[in-house]
Design brief:
Blueprint: H1 2-28, E1 45-51, H2 58-65, E2 73-79, H3 86-96, E3 102-106, H4 115-126, E4 131-135, H5 145-151, E5 157-162, E6 165-170, H6 172-194, E7 204-208, H7 209-213, H8 227-237, E8 241-244, E9 250-255, H9 258-275, H10 277-280, H11 289-302, H12 306-327, H13 336-354, E10 358-362, E11 365-369, E12 377-378
Parallel strand pairs: 1-2, 1-4, 2-3, 5-8, 6-9
Antiparallel strand pairs: 4-7, 5-7, 10-11, 11-12
Helix pairs in contact: 1-6, 1-11, 1-12, 2-3, 6-13, 9-13, 11-12
């Protein structure tokens, strides 16, 4: 009876903490609306876009970057190698939108084992303005992209970010990726911000250039294997906060495979483990797996119906997730509950994999992530 009571209590506590995280995230998030330009003189902004390879939505994301509703901004595209096929598309876009100041910089500054950070260095150093956005090339920027970032800046802010919100999935596995990105990872990131634990996200990062330059510049982000982890620690170290935009930006997904999802999510898990191990450790409790096992064990001991217990636990987990996605205008389909279940079946294996070292592929760059941050090193890529 004591074990049954303990299992029931733990399962209930995990279900309630899941609901609380959704409520906290919902309190910070807003459904997407267009933000008008602020009144008065608007600061010029530099947008640095590290690019590698051509993806299904590259044409659209490029066009969006040249169509922002901001009076003065420049685009700085960074590519590591001149033979990258994306170079031709970027040059075509620059020629097609001559009214927007834009440059393409090619080269690789080897300041770290992080290929994205290496690609960004030249863009950061070439930026002409005091406000700089580091934006991944697969972010689908809305016209009011800069407005959303500026609106989240506060007097005690050191960095403004946006989590990626998966959209336009093509196939079931892309919906599983939506389940990872949206109602799990973005939800917990916004819940953390509500509790004063803001974590940076590298998809879109608005920096005050003089502030970062005074604290080591972009090269200081090489202190960690992931630039967003280094950014979080740097900003907190100078007594400032990381803020998130109220309406995060889309990342169109297209088709995904199970292998692609596993590779990406396992890599992120290992990066979180080496950079924030104390926060990574309880991630095993964020899915429905642990509370479901505890509830079924308690139900078996008490003679309750196992199918009804399973349905009750899954409904308590996934209906609030669906409500969050619906209320914020995120992707939702009849298959999303199935996608969430598959995601939670994958979570324990990913969590366990996160504690192990080994090689990962980062967009064609092979890396070895050891069991400690000090063991991080880059290795030649077979790609």
């Amino acid at each position: 009876m004591e074990l049954t009571l303990i299992a029931t209590s733990l399962s209930t506590a995990l279900i309630l903490s899941n609901a609380a995280s959704i409520a906290l995230a919902a309190s910070r998030l807003k459904r997407r609306t267009t933000i008008a330009r602020p009144a008065g003189k608007l600061p010029p902004v530099s947008i640095v876009v590290p690019s590698r390879g051509v993806e299904p939505f590259t044409h659209e994301t490029l066009e969006r970057a040249f169509s922002l509703d901001w009076p003065r901004y420049e685009l700085i595209f960074c590519v590591a190698h001149a033979d990258d096929p994306v170079v031709g598309l970027i040059r075509q876009a620059i020629a097609h939108f001559p009214e927007v100041p834009a440059r393409l910089l090619i080269g690789d500054d080897r300041v770290s084992a992080n290929p994205k950070l290496n690609n960004c260095v030249k863009g950061w150093e070439a930026a002409r303005h005091n406000w700089v956005v580091l934006a991944d090339s697969n972010v689908l920027m809305p016209r009011d992209y800069i407005q959303h970032l500026i609106a989240a800046w506060r007097p005690n802010t050191g960095l403004v970010c946006s989590t990626p919100i998966g959209s336009r999935p093509d196939g079931f596995w892309a919906e599983v990726e939506c389940a990872f990105l949206n109602t799990l990872q973005a939800r917990w990131q916004y819940a953390g911000e509500a509790l004063g634990l803001g974590f940076a996200q590298g998809k879109s990062m608005l920096w005050n250039k003089p502030m970062l330059d005074a604290n080591g510049g972009i090269r200081a982000l090489a202190a960690e294997i992931a630039e967003d982890a280094a950014a979080t620690k740097l900003v907190n170290g100078v007594g400032l906060r990381v803020n998130l935009v109220a309406s995060p930006f889309e990342q169109p997904l297209g088709r995904r495979t199970l292998g692609e999802i596993w590779s990406r999510q396992a890599r992120w898990a290992r990066l979180r483990r080496v950079t924030f191990p104390l926060f990574f450790a309880p991630e095993i409790l964020t899915g429905a797996g642990v509370p479901l096992v505890l509830a079924l064990g308690a139900a078996a001991s008490a003679g309750f119906s196992l199918p009804l217990t399973a349905v009750a636990v899954l409904a308590a987990f996934y209906l609030p997730e669906c409500a969050l996605a619906w209320s914020k205008g995120w992707y939702l389909s009849p298959r999303m509950v199935a996608a969430m279940i598959v995601r939670d079946l994958m979570l324990p294996a990913m969590w366990a994999r996160g504690w192990l070292g080994g090689a990962v592929d980062w967009r064609g760059n092979a890396m070895t992530i050891g069991t400690k941050a000090a063991e991080l090193e880059e290795t030649p890529s077979r790609a």
